[in-house]
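Consider the record:
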Amino acid sequence: MNIQTILKSFVGKAIISDEQASLIADYEEDKPFSLHWELRSILYLGIVLFGSGIGVIIYENIDTIGHQVIIALIAALTAWCFFYTYKHALPYSNLEVKNPKKLTDYVLLLGCTTFLILEGYSQFQYNAFGTRYGVAVLIPTIIFFFCAYRFDHKGVLSMAITGLASWLGLTVAPLSILSENDFTEDRLLGTAVILGIMLSIAGWASEKQNIKKHFSFTYIFLGGNLAVLAAMTGIFSDKAQFIYIVAGIALSVFFVQRARFAQSLLFLLMGVVYGYIIITYLIFSNIESDDASFTFGTFYFMFTSVGVVYFLLHFKKFLGIKK
């Protein structure tokens, strides 16, 4: 249904007048089309392709160029990126800083990427850090946290959180938490829950203290997912089950509360889905009889399905979003 059909329907029902319909039609026809997200996607893709191109050039010309020259070029590019970002950055503020020079954000992201390339290349070729791999991971993590706050960059903050998790032997990427982390090891499982909770607390505190409060989503999303999925793994594997049950349910409640506060459907879905999985597992794991489990399960999933439909129809009301 196009705009003309909708306007004619409104005029026919006396909702708007012919003059108003004409003004709206003219506005819709002449309004500028935003290329914001298209340009951002192209710039991000350009940074990825540029980094990949550097790798290909190094691989194909390593014998001709020489290792020292390559390292010097990457270091020079990295230094230029950080210098350019610093030169064009606005003063630091605890509030969100929107730099009118959008190129600065992408130059900073490129600088952080080339810094990782520089460090990895130096370690591979000259074993710069020896066997102190933790130091090699911790250095960029500290630098990225500093850059994220100083230059107000959410992408660099995500890189810093990923580096912190890597330093502890974890990954925080939502699609890789279960496949890339070895949760069969008790120490790593507990570390994942503690780190995820600490990141969630950091996000909550940043909003309460009004220090880069717009970073809270990144902290809570990455940390919360890591913690609750690790807790669910602990519940399913019967490892210190009570502790992980408390952690999983508490995080689910926390997600729901954050959803109501931020009017976020994503956090609401995370809290409801994670909580539903945990509660469902606990209920059925305590039913010993297969017949009783089947009978109860039939009614349980039928009524909870009705609840899901009701939830999807009324989630705006729950979040306090006006129609």
Q: What stands out?
A: The mean pLDDT is 84. The first helix runs from residue 3 to 12. Residues 41-167 form one domain.
